[in-house]
């Protein structure tokens, strides 16, 4: 066997192996980056719900027992969530926020024992790469909920 021929065959097989390996590694890298971005966006939603719940749990007691004032506090908590969600990487389609006192709506008729803020985010996967749409589906939904005891004075 001619040694010159052997090295040419080896180079060709290495190129094919490299092409097959790179396709797999690129797919794996894309999935890892996409999952990292999803985790980052979830953390933004979680921080938004935590900040809004922290704000409401420390509102003054006389305001939380007044139906007009509690509405103002709810609007501020909603603005806190909206401002935080502007940092989302993948963008979102109409995030949903729900705020509850003792598991019901905050009406101002009683002093709450707990305050719960839930943020639901629906992220489009196609905005990252078309490949992720095929792997994860058209949307990934995430729910971040924070419940804190009411400590207002």
Walkthrough of the structure:
The chain is an alpha+beta fold. The protein has one domain (3-149). The chain contains 4 helices and 3 strands, in the order αααββαβ. Strands 1-2-3 form a 3-stranded antiparallel β-sheet. It is rod-shaped, with a radius of gyration of 25 Å. The mean pLDDT is 86.
- Topology as a string of helices (H) and strands (E): HHHEEHE
Biggest β-sheet, characterized? 3 strands, antiparallel
How many strands?
3
Number of helices: 4
Number of domains: 1
Shape: rod-shaped
What's the rounded overall pLDDT mean? Answer: 86
Show unreliable segments: none
Strand order in the largest sheet: 1-2-3
| Class of secondary structure makeup | alpha+beta
**Which strand-content bin applies to the residues?**
15-25%
Give the C-alpha Rg: 25 Å
Oligomeric status: single chain
Helix coverage percent:
55-70%
What is the straight-line distance between the termini?
Answer: 91 Å
Task: Summarize this entry quickly.
This protein has one domain (3-149). α1 packs antiparallel against α3. The protein is built from four helices and three strands.
